[in-house]
Fold this sequence. Notes:
The protein has four domains: 3-31 and 352-437, Multidrug efflux transporter AcrB transmembrane fold, CATH 1.20.1640.10; 44-129, Multidrug efflux transporter AcrB pore domain (Alpha-Beta Plaits, 2-Layer Sandwich), CATH 3.30.70.1430; 139-180 and 270-321, Alpha-Beta Plaits; 183-264, Multidrug efflux transporter AcrB TolC docking domain, DN and DC subdomains, CATH 3.30.2090. Helices cover 51% and strands 23% of the residues. The protein is built from 14 helices and 16 strands. The protein has helices spanning 3-9, 11-31, 56-71, 101-115, 149-165, 189-194, 199-209, 236-240, 254-257, 291-308, 320-350, 353-376, 383-412, 417-437, and strands spanning 44-50, 77-85, 88-95, 127-129, 139-145, 170-176, 181-187, 212-220, 223-230, 243-247, 250-253, 258-264, 272-273, 276-277, 279-285, 312-319. A four-stranded antiparallel β-sheet has the order 2-3-1-4, with helices on one face. The model has no long low-confidence stretch (mean pLDDT 83).
Amino acid sequence: MSLxxxxxxxxxxxxxxxxxxxxxGGVSLSQLAVDLMPDIQNPSVSVITIxxxxxxxxxxxxxxxxxEQNLSSVSGIENILSSxxxxxxxxxxxxxxxxxxxLAINEVRDSLNKLRNKLxxxxxxxxxxxxxxxxRPILYLGLNSDLDPITLTRLTENQIIPQFEQLEGVARVRMxxxxxxxxxxxxxxxxxxxxxxxxxxxxxxxxxxxxxQPAGNYEEGNLNLHIRSQGEFTxxxxxxxxxxxxxxxxxxxxxxxAEVVDGEKERTELTRMNGxxxxxxxxxxxxxxxxxxxxxQVQKQVERANKSIPDVNLTIRVDNSExxxxxxxxxxxxxxxxxxxxxxxxxxxxxxxRSMLVIGVCMPLSVLATFTLxxxxxxxxxxxxxxxxxxxxxxxxxxxxxxxxxxFRKREDGLDPKTAAIEGTEEVSSAITASTLxx
Length: 439
């Protein structure tokens, strides 16, 4: 039995099936993630190695070529592109489409681990970078305060950022423009020369004192305790009192040859908001999370943070979800206008309210059924999927008009409604299927 005959001869079954599709579509629509673009992974990774002080030729010979030769055996590679420049080497691996990048990255990492000992001593360990279209901030938050910069940085790291990272759908929050604390030991060159002492001797003394290490185990009955020796510096006095050298009854401390200052790291970037220094926070969402939902949660958390922490002013500087909302709203509006105009055209040309009602019901039913497929396939609602839905609605209207015209012609030939519906639909089903598949 064909689908057309089943639908006409079993109206109750058809009605219940349609209601099930409507319910599934409604539930799926409420669970679908919304984003600007579909999640498309570019099958490529880059291996970057920093080699300070090396020229382009040296970086190519000692870094780039060995990495290329070592990674050429990784499965799934389509081509390898590399560039060597002052102080760095970049090797880009382009994989075949459909390659599991997680497995490929693990294979690349294993190959690099075998190569590390063969690289020059001055080169840093190679690291892998994978560009993901979805791996970009969805919100930029601005933070300024009358607090001193270091206190503001600590407050942001210990209190504000953890509150945002606990939100559902938030992957991480990065901080830019903050002033970091730095303990500076300013050596007195003249005193070092008078004591015939080198800088490395001071560095080694500080390293030996500023360390945590295991100190064994303590067992008593069923009790087993791991003991650690806590030797890290916790105050400036401990640094100043560190013994650098003991010679002929004389002890040289750090305070004797240097000034210890609780200072700030040298700033390489500056963030200003409304002319005042501040901190910029980048909020990243988890893969597959609903951008609009995450943005709404972050906005609520911004309001809570401003109320609970009166010393800071936290504002949303850039919200990429607004562009997504506007783009999707425009597409939805265009689709609704299209459906409305299609119904109006049907009324004018077919001059039948019943025919208009049939097509008017088919359009939302088909769209809701499509939402079910989108959800179970793991896709998102974005401008591409909405554009496809709008195109599908237009094709649906065209096909519906062809089917209705065929049914009307059968009715004019004297057939009863059920027979006319079956024969009229089956007569054009092959043609409209072929035209739809080739569009």
